[in-house]
Design brief:
Elements: E1 2-7, E2 10-13, E3 18-26, E4 33-39, E5 46-52, E6 57-60, E7 68-73, E8 78-83, E9 92-99, E10 113-114, E11 118-123
Parallel strand pairs: 2-11
Antiparallel strand pairs: 1-3, 3-8, 4-5, 4-9, 5-6, 7-8, 9-10, 9-11
């Protein structure tokens, strides 16, 4: 039983930056990893980034590597996604997810809990 609440989405101009937050509550002690996915209209949900909670290992999707950074705040049970050099193709609903056990980090089916999503729109 983990609840996830995303925040920080909005409208930004191409080249700008935005930071998303995902606050976890409930039985967060069971969380092995946190991930970010995104989904644009007419497209499949795409892996963006993941973090292994206990050690801080991070992984990124090819489309965002070098521009996005995932990080954590243990005291706040919060994961962040810092997005820089935003492009119009980054426009999507961004979802936070939590995984309760070890395994692959890049597939949405491997995650147990999901937030409601937050809209990110990048204008050109």
């Amino acid at each position: 039983q983990v609840q996830l609440v995303e925040s920080g989405g909005g409208l930004v101009q191409a080249g700008g930056s935005l930071r998303l937050s995902c606050a976890a509550s409930g039985r967060t002690f069971s969380t092995y990893a946190m991930g970010w996915f995104r989904q644009a209209p007419g497209k499949e949900r795409e892996f963006v980034a993941a973090l292994v909670w206990s050690v801080g290992y991070t992984f990124y999707g090819d489309s965002v590597k070098g521009r996005f950074t995932i990080s954590r705040d243990n005291a706040k049970n919060t994961v962040y996604l810092q997005m820089n050099s935003l492009k119009p193709e980054d426009t999507a609903v961004y979802y936070c997810a939590a995984k309760s056990g070890p395994g692959t980090l890049r597939y949405r089916a491997a995650y147990d809990y999901w937030g409601q999503g937050t809209q990110v729109t990048v204008s050109s």
